[in-house]
Amino acid sequence: MIKAYATVAAISAFLISGCQSEEPSPAPLANGIIYCSEGNPDTFNPQLVTSGTTVDATAAQLYDRLIDYDANQQKFVPALAKRWETLDNGTRYRFHLREGVQFHHTDYFQPTRELTAEDVQFSFNRWLDDTSLYHTVGGSYPFFSATGLDQLINKVVKIDKMTVDIVLNNADSSFLANLATDFAIILSAEYAQQLLVVDRPAQIDILPIGTGPYRFESYRKDVLIRYSRHPDYWREGPGIEHLVYSITPNANKRMLKLVTGECDIIPYPLVSELKALNRKELQVTNEVSPNVSFWAFNTEKEPFNDPLVRQALSHAINREAIIQTIYYGNAELAQSILPPTSWAYDDRGIQYRYNPEKAKRLLQEAGHANLNINIWAMPVQRVYNPNARRMAELMQSDLAQIGVSARIVSYEWNTFRRRLSRGEHDTVLIGWYADNADPDNFFRPLLSCAAVATGGNRANWCHPGFDQLLYSAIATTNAEERKALYQSAQHLLNQQQPLLPIAHSKRFQAQQKDITGVELPPYGGINFRLATKQTAEDDSQ
Amino acid sequence: MTRYLIGRLTVFIIAVFLLTVFSFSLNYFFPGDPITNMSGVRSFQSNYPLVMEMRAGNENIATQYLHYLRHLFAGNWGQSLSNGTPVFADGFQHFMASMELIILALLVAVTLGLPLGVFAASRFRQRSDKAVISLAMIGYSVPVFWLAQLMILLFAIKLGWFPITGQINPLYGVEPQTGSILVDVFLSNSEYKAAAFQDAINHIVLPVLILAIMPMMLLLRLMRNATQEMLQKPFVKAARARGLNEWRVLVKHAIPNALQSVLHQTTLLFSLMLTNSIVVESIFNWPGMGNWLIRSIFERDYPIIQSAVLMFAFVILFFNLLVELYHGWRFPIVRHEQYATR
Lengths: 541, 342
Fold this sequence. Notes:
The complex is a heterodimer of chains A (541) and B (342).
Chain A (H helix, E strand, L loop, with lengths): L1 H18 L7 H4 L1 E4 L16 H11 L4 E4 L4 E4 L2 E7 L4 E6 L19 H12 L13 H5 L2 H4 E8 L2 E6 L6 H5 L9 H9 L16 E7 L3 E6 L12 E5 L4 H9 L5 E3 L14 E7 L2 E7 L9 H9 L3 H8 L4 E3 L22 H11 L4 E7 L10 H14 L2 E6 L3 H9 L5 E7 L6 H8 L1 H6 L9 H12 L3 H18 L2 E14 L2 E2 L15 E2 L2 H5 L1
Parallel strand pairs in A: 1-10, 15-16, 15-17
Antiparallel strand pairs in A: 2-3, 4-5, 5-7, 6-7, 8-9, 9-10, 11-18, 12-18, 13-17, 13-18, 14-18, 19-20
Helix pairs in contact in A: 10-12, 15-17, 17-18
Chain B lengths: L1 H28 L4 H6 L8 H7 L6 H13 L13 H36 L4 H15 L2 H15 L22 H7 L5 H39 L2 H8 L4 H38 L5 H10 L3 H29 L1 H8 L3
Helix pairs in contact in B: 1-13, 5-6, 5-9, 5-11, 5-12, 5-13, 6-9, 7-9, 7-11, 8-9, 9-11, 10-11, 11-12, 11-13, 12-13, 13-14
């Protein structure tokens, strides 16, 4: 018995000594960053998805693109292509590749050569060419079909070892912008070849190889993703050795883990508790980001095929109240589907002001006095909409005032999107997050007739005149002309009102003060390329 | 003793048999294809016909059950429906992570609960006894999830002593081998083993403490009552009359006899802890069986659901068996009572 007590004493002494650790943090902690992400990635190849979680986890960390977009200078800058030129009246782009770009060395792949034109050709043909051996591996390429890039590019031609030509079917001024997105990444053709030999092609998206600033180490579902620095990175890389994504879907837990120091950076902090984060070692950054949340009407269904009904319902919604209640004021009331920061924005003042009387009158004019509708509210948090369900509840009571009774519908996120694509909804609360700086990215993936087929057009709205405007706008490179065309497009949208834009939200991120260089680019996912962690030693110097 | 042993073992084997029948029939109760529910291989996958044949999918139900048992005992528990990882290997790691938590908590509960109970009994109806016993009452009644929130608020947020999720800071790069973090740190080839070990201890303190509180308080009360009862017995009076001091009376006479009835209750304690571990693991993101079960239920991952349920039930049965066997061996009176022999 005495012995047992001694053991207890020893154990408790050990436990207590375990709690006090005031010494400087050991090397692995000082050299690594933990990012508490909100979910599991679907795959490690951003070509296959449009989901923000997957893009955040992979695109900027594992891969590089031919060109990058510099949001500060508002222009395209060289990346894997050191320069490029436009030939044949804008239907042929020639890219000169950078020499000495190394792929990741890992225990599952040892590259024998540097980046060449072959890799670029392989990466594009994967989603472009349905005869490519890898085309059916991994399924579909939603970004490329939604933007029409797979229809736009005719072929990718290798000119010599370090030169590639991309031949377009017609001139398109949004082409470079799409190339600079997180989706147009470059894979290793050599790795793909080796996997074909051992008959495991699917591994290319599970154990990824790229040229990016980090290489893949391990992934445990629901627990973590582990990356380490790519030592032979071709440009300035990160100041840390390890990057860990600690998967934490619960938003409250993410905040707590930031407070206890278990996370260095968290995305989507709860806006309602931002003030509580007012601790001196924490820092909250926000970025006006190109996004929009909207309420789309399924225009293929009665009575939403009548523009008058859509206008009436739009007048019934008190959007100012929504901005205050759902976004806590951290968003801007949307007048157009384009955010005001876009150069093609059409500033006409407030459209569809809250006016229940007018809404009632319009509804009577349209001959629908007592409507029964459903509102589909997405089940997840997104930058553009932190709480769609709550928003739907507010709208429900607004609609009740004009005699419209609304039922709120929600499913698990994947089911939700699948059913939406089948057009089962009356109206839906959803939104869009721009992938690139071109205004085209807000129109074609969301409201073109082509997008009805791919399921991106949540209003199922196909208007030939509107499509005509969009296609004229991308056929020209004259900025003034494009602006005029986009403004008439916005004007037309305003009359037709297939959807009611609600808000442009700010994107937030909270982090420890000692982390620097983590960019939240306005377009696309989080970027850890220049991330560093100041150690205690740096502070004292 | 042999008779007792055989009797207990027979009951155990019958219970396990019923358990496997239940988990086998779950495959038919879950929606979808029973073979897919068993193996995690979907009907469009290329190896499905093979799996179908291996598990005798076209034979009668009895043959299917026999094949199911064969797979079960061979450790071939199928693969996860959501990400294709083998269930048995995965389950083993989760099992070890849970056991680490539960065994440490049991240790804390026993080493603190029993002495406190004896202390309270020896001060029966005095002020210190009342203080201890009301504390035990409160500790036993507090819901685990609420207690966990309070402890997190105090120790992690306000004081910043302990982290709140996971087994270890992921930057130490300790990869799971056994699933039990303290063992994994020991097995890892990290240069910073000492620091990693300390970090793992820091992570484990809060969950262990919270898991330990309820059984500790229960043990305390049981021990107090049992010891008190013994202290009233004639043989204790006799011992006192022989002039033994109070300490010797307690240690030599009262406690060993009190332990007999308390020990029997530990089976109850164990199942209580397993139930609570589900809550604690979810709160602390501890990668144990409870967390595994909850996740699999959310994801409708049938091979994992049935394996986790099977493991939970088996662990409880097995622990009961061990306690009963030990009980019968250590206290002959138990087995004599059972068969009314002398």
